[in-house]
## 1
Amino acid sequence: MSSEESLVRQAIGGDQLAFTKLYDEHFDKIYRYIYFKIRNQAEAEDLTQDVFIKALEAIGSYKWRDVPFASWLFRIAHNKVVDYSRKQARQRNVALNEAIVANVGDPVAMTERKFEIEELAVAMGKLPPAQGEVVSLRFIAGLPIAEVARVLGKREGTVKALQYNAVVSMRKILFER
């Protein structure tokens, strides 16, 4: 039995410490995935918390199937992002640019990094939705291809093809201007 499987079984049994360990292990990946999808720090933090609240509420119904626990969390996160996007589309809110406040570091380097992230986000926004989802899960959340396939309910070969096409498209968008 893997250590993750053991933690999940303990969390299912009501062990709060086990769930806290799962939370600590997966929080950053889930947050990065959500943030890159919605590009709003405060909302991404709230949605990430919502993902873990939903996971805690539903952990009793979780069945271990030799699939990483993160796959289940990313499915919840994906659904939260879809719900958020639908809500935003209905409200038609105008997003304000977020200021990155940091009290350490080189302001020029921080500005360049923010610009690069914005360029990547714009390029990803031009990808077809399936390619964008694969890029988000592979490169932002750092999931392996097999796990991306499980999260999206696609075959590994399909994920590889989507990833390849996304990378080719992003190169064209970013470097052939």
## 2
Amino acid sequence: MALLVTALMLTPVQAGDVTASQAEPEEDPKQPDLNNQTMYMYFNDSNGDVAWTHFQSMDNDSAEEYMDENENGELNVDISFRMTPELSKRIYIEADGLIRGSFKINVQGDWTNDNDGNTACGQNDCDELNITLMAGPNIIGQHHETGLNEGDNTVVFNFQMEEDTIVDWNKKDFNPVVKVEMKLRGDYNQGSFPFTGESGKAASFSMKMGMDSFLELPIDAASWDESFQEGGELGGDMEDTPGFTLVVASAAIAMAVFVNIGKEEEEELEA
């Protein structure tokens, strides 16, 4: 009987309404989860320049690419892809993890400072491509690309987590932002036919959206534990599990009953 009582006490009891649990809404595909840890870049200029990022690989509101150009003069690229909707979960980036990125970009014109008065960037007023990942106000990683060629480029980069890198991103206070910055110049001159012909090159910058431009985050699997989402420590042990203390106490009581029964039977035999 004591063993049976112990077994019953150790058997997990499902609390709450099962039907209600089954009717819970599905996870938002724009939010990260155990099987979805890739942020995609999106852009739409139909109502002002709006850039955003989230964890769904498709977004019908986005254009296929961001595009800007300037035939003669400075082209200042400054895009901030903000997590939309805001991060609703607490995520923990693996302390020794590697954030991997890949952006498809096309550039034309001049972006190399060479202190040469005969080139578009001869006044040292251009900037090469810079990609920055932030979590709220915190800089997580920065990439400076020096190897761009005219035309199509696939820019592959990594952000290595350092000792002082913020890895515990607590919901919207650490909402991710991806910044893409670059300064190019165009020096195209149509000329005045028939005296002079065309010269120089126009500046342009374009970036593909969606599955062509993304960041992969190494989110620790323990981030999805309910105790962590509710503010607990990462990878809490069994003692932190609700009801664990009750189960242990119940088991101890059952064992005490079993021992006492054994003693009583032993005393009866001796008598």
## 3
Amino acid sequence: MLNRTILQTAAILALSVSLATAQNAAPPKLPELPPIDQAALAKMKVEDLYKHLCATCHGADLNGGLAPSFIDGVWKHGSTDAEIARTILKGNISLGMTPWEGILTSDQIRSLIIFIREKEKEARVKGVSYPKPEPGKVTRTQLADYTIETVAEGLEIPWSIAFLPDGRKLVTERPGRLRIISKDDRLLPNPVANTPTVVVHGQGGLLDVVLHPDFRKNGWIYLAVADGTKKTIPGKKKPEVKALTAIVRGRLKGDRWTDTEWIWKGDPKFYDGSGAHFGSRIVFDKKGFLYFIVGERGALMEVQDLANPKGKIFRLHDDGRVPRDNPKFDQATAVPGVFSYGHRNPQGMARHPRTGRIYATEHGPRGGDELNLIQAGRNYGWPVITWGMNYNGTPLGKTHQEGMEQPNHFWVPSIATCGLDFYDGRKFRKWRNDLFVGALKQEEVRRLRLKDGKVVQEEVILKGLGRVRDVRSGPDGFLYVVLNKPDSVLRLVPAK
């Protein structure tokens, strides 16, 4: 148990300083802290760290007391993460702030900052009104006003949408079905027949769908799926599962899938039973190269192992061949096709319509969701570096390390990024080339404006309609949103 004397000493000191300051007297010297049980401290969750070390002065609800509030937006000694970390580390004797240097680790300090940011955000958005569209009503945003139309309902965990040249739309359902929406927005009752068998397990199943850039000529449709086996074992309640993300292509003839070709599968030795983090988005670049994501599947240092496909973004020719100009790695056993590594669970990937650059959004743990510019051969750091912490509130990694990429933008607290696209239509001219980010946890669509690859503007344009699984700029110039709970597809149309 943490030594209570240290807590009492800090509280008494803070009160003494306040009284001394009010009387223009010299503040007392900070007394030497008694021994502390470092083993107990190391096991504490961030909520307990705050409760035991900070709440006496800053308030159990972070709203202040003997010391200032953490959630009123006023920071006397600097508001950046680095400045807050320095204040926690070094303290401020003249104001009665205990220095925690030598007691708290840098990871614990980072966890406290994330916790404070979570509570600060909660307080800041409390009572704030965000655009929650309603049928038949105009929704107003900073640059464009729109109305919503329902494209399809009655789906089951829709995951992605693609647009056929004849006006029909393809929608994947995670339980393994590929659905067709007619030109006049009718969800056809029967799914596409003969699609590849997928493993439906946890977050895995039938995931992304993308058309080949020359679809009009070759008809190829690409799917990201959870591939593997799922077997019922006598005497066991749960089936035995072995799965990993894979990429397959085929063609659509009427309402039937044909010409199946597997473009990429991992070595079976890397297939596992985790139900988490399949990644799976697909993008073609301007040269016709195919990029796709294999999520880290809950793994940690396997992500840094180039011989393991987990936590990697791949770049291949459209038929699965490895391009000669792909990055070369020192590790001789690197999996062929790896383009970048050190990713956690990216579930959004998009190509900038003007620059051709590839961007991806990535789920962090608790805090630290990321937007990254994907570059050849780069290491994006997971799990060595992160701007988040473990879900249970314990520290995880650090924020910087040489040779590892920093995100272009990150979110603390997490928004649970999923679905990503640049708007390249002409219906919303003021949104052109802006990046639209879906958020599962916050049930949001966010508009990001980039300048020189950096986020210079961020706006929530939609909130509270359901978990946003995908966002797509349609060839008709409208913006499409795929929702879970309720399982539906919406279309954003400029207000008249």
